[in-house]
Amino acid sequence: QVQLVESGGGLVQAGGSLRLSCAASGRTFSSYTMGWFRQAPGKEREFVASIIMNTGRTDYADSVKGRFTISRDNAKTTVYLEMNNLAPEDTAVYSCAAHPASTWSRATWAYKFWGQGTQVSVSS
């Protein structure tokens, strides 16, 4: 059974930092692309970042480029999202997801497995 479990969310002041983790289990994810998405209240879910697990190549939404960094551990079972210089507009539920191909995708429909999400709240 595939499981994606996020952790690391919380409340932080504007300008602060958080590090999210996504622990993946149930299969080998080395041939997958792992992504982070977020959904703010009243808004659609949006792409944040992705990493192709076997190459480490990354892709970022323009709104987070230069502030967020996606990475993976050497065992390719955990994906991280380092978030710096957070702003109130970054407040959302952040979810990790697995896309069963070694290609970038920003489309939610391309991701087959999803975690339950973790809340990130940024106060001004």
Folded structure, characterized:
The chain is an all-beta fold and 124 residues long. It has strands at 3-7, 10-13, 18-25, 33-39, 46-52, 58-60, 68-72, 78-83, 92-99, 113-114, 118-123. It has no helices and eleven strands. It is globular and about 40 Å long.
Considering the chains and any ligands shown, give keywords for the structure.
single chain, 124 residues, mainly beta, four-stranded antiparallel sheet, globular
Give a quick precis of the structure.
With 124 residues, this protein is an all-beta fold. The chain has strands at residues 3-7, 10-13, 18-25, 33-39, 46-52, 58-60, 68-72, 78-83, 92-99, 113-114, 118-123.
List the helices and strands and how they pair.
Blueprint: E1 3-7, E2 10-13, E3 18-25, E4 33-39, E5 46-52, E6 58-60, E7 68-72, E8 78-83, E9 92-99, E10 113-114, E11 118-123
Parallel strand pairs: 2-11
Antiparallel strand pairs: 1-3, 3-8, 4-5, 4-9, 5-6, 7-8, 9-10, 9-11
